[in-house]
């Protein structure tokens, strides 16, 4: 039986431009701008200074606390600056800027050969932590934190998120077709870290080739590939967990509350590299697409490469884009410039052409209820937006489940009034957080 969840929407997937294209390796950036904030939690602390010579794979930023992550040099060369630079999420943040020497030399001792099966869970977890691995689906939660078992929780299931439900994005799809052994080994390592004996792989049923590849790759292992209906947001954690396992995360809860840990395709591939070869997270596969891109591609690109150079590798712009988006069009972020660096969570770079997006002027809510029908969390997005507009942030939180909103954008897609509901929700969450901080400070 094909499994799914309530609500959701069916945006045009726009994946055909890149779904059939093998991953290509982008050239090294001449200058890599490597931010110290590429993950949820505390920013890393730079441990290099201007003028230092660094090599690929060398730690240049150390994690500042448990919920933080190391950052590594993605190229070899000279540090030409340590300071504030443009960032795709935070506007600006501290970054280490490296001018390439063109040699692309590894730090001494890398890569190495390691028999991971001889290591215990604690040793594997430390390697994952040292390698700076974070969630590659876009959330960028430090993987070692997500994989650390809490004393009062019992985890018995790993779920591999291979849904890739966002329109345009095909990086995970291509990895499943081309890099099965990395994914399989990464899953086996992740299972050993968690001490679980079962894994479910959720893939949308519009990726039949990937379903077959993964089914064949995991043959003989306690891993089941589950075909899921093509519906957005099938890849959101709560929706995915419910669809493949039937478990429901309680309001305000986390996957571990129902015995589950979810990892992304790119994340387990990075785990494989780190554990078997000592290679830290210095590159990722990213989809560059949209109506304004001349030659859309899936590219393997070094962290710190400017958006501009990734776009130039795809032959530049066909037309002037109306919007540049980091990630997918539903949950991604519009960017003011292409002179910003690719970070660990950049799953896509989209150049949306004029008329390609379903945009329009925002109007007042007409109470049609389409957003309610679309919401996979069973919320009332209309009321959340209206309360936020009126400054009633506490009411949105207390009476309408504000913090249960996954910000998936299904409501915005369904809204005939073009209401920017997700932006209202984000603002309301921020106001509640600010009020709590003020209260804690007395």
Q: How would you describe what is shown here?
A:
By secondary structure, the protein is α/β, with parallel strands linked by helices. It has 4 domains: 28-100, OB fold (Dihydrolipoamide Acetyltransferase, E2P); 112-277, NADH-ubiquinone oxidoreductase 51kDa subunit (Rossmann fold, 3-Layer(aba) Sandwich); 282-352, Ubiquitin-like (UB roll); 370-440, no CATH class. It contains 14 helices and 17 strands. The chain has a 6-stranded mixed β-sheet, sandwiched between helices. The protein has a 4-stranded antiparallel β-sheet with strand order 2-8-7-4, with no helix packed on it. The chain has a 4-stranded parallel β-sheet with strand order 11-10-9-12, sandwiched between helices. Helix 2 (121-130) packs across helix 5 and helix 5 packs across helix 8 (265-277). It is globular and about 65 Å long. The N and C termini lie far apart (54 Å). The mean pLDDT is 95. Keywords: 4Fe-4S, Cell membrane, Electron transport, Iron, Iron-sulfur, Membrane, Metal-binding, Repeat, Translocase, Transport. Its main location: membrane. Its EC number is 7.-.-.-. It is found in: Cell membrane.
């Amino acid at each position: 039986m094909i499994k799914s969840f309530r609500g959701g929407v069916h945006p045009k997937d726009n994946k055909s431009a890149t779904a059939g294209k093998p991953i290509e390796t982008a050239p090294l950036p001449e200058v890599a701008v490597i931010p110290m904030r590429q993950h949820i939690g505390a920013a890393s602390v730079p441990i290099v200074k201007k003028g230092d010579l660094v090599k690929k794979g060398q730690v240049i930023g150390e994690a500042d606390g448990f919920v933080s992550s190391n950052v590594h040099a993605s190229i070899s060369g000279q540090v030409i600056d340590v300071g504030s630079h443009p960032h795709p999420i935070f506007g600006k943040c501290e970054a280490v800027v490296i001018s390439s020497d063109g040699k692309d030399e590894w730090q001494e001792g890398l890569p190495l050969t390691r028999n991971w099966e001889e290591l215990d869970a604690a040793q594997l977890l430390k390697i994952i932590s040292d390698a700076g691995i974070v969630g590659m689906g876009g959330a960028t939660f430090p993987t070692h934190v997500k994989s650390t078992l809490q004393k009062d929780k019992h985890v018995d299931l790993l779920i591999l998120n291979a849904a890739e439900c966002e329109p345009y994005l095909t990086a995970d799809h291509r990895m499943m077709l081309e890099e099965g052994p990395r994914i399989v080994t990464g899953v086996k390592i992740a299972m050993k870290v968690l001490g679980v004996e079962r894994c479910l792989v959720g893939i949308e049923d519009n990726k039949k080739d990937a379903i077959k590849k993964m089914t064949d790759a995991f043959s003989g292992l306690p891993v089941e590939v589950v075909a899921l209906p093509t519906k957005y947001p099938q890849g959101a954690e709560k929706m995915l967990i419910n669809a493949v396992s039937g478990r429901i995360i309680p309001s305000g809860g986390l996957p571990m509350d129902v015995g589950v840990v979810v990892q992304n395709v790119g994340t387990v591939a990075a785990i494989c590299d780190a554990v078997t070869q000592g290679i830290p997270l210095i590159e990722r596969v990213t989809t560059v697409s949209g109506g304004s891109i001349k030659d859309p591609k899936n590219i393997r690109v070094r962290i710190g490469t400017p958006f501009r150079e990734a776009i130039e590798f795809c032959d530049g712009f066909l037309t002037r884009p109306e919007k540049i988006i980091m990630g997918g069009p539903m949950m991604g972020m519009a960017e003011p410039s292409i002179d910003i660096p690719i970070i660990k969570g950049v799953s896509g770079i989209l150049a949306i052409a004029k008329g390609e997006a379903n945009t329009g002027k925002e109007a007042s809510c007409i109470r049609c209820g389409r957003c309610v029908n679309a919401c996979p969390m069973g919320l009332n997005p209309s009321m959340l937006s209206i309360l936020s507009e009126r400054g009633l942030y506490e009411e949105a939180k207390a009476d309408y489940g504000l913090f249960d909103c996954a910000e998936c954008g299904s409501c915005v897609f369904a809204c005939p009034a073009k209401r920017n509901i997700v932006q209202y929700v984000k603002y309301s969450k921020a106001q509640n957080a600010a009020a709590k901080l003020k209260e804690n400070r007395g």
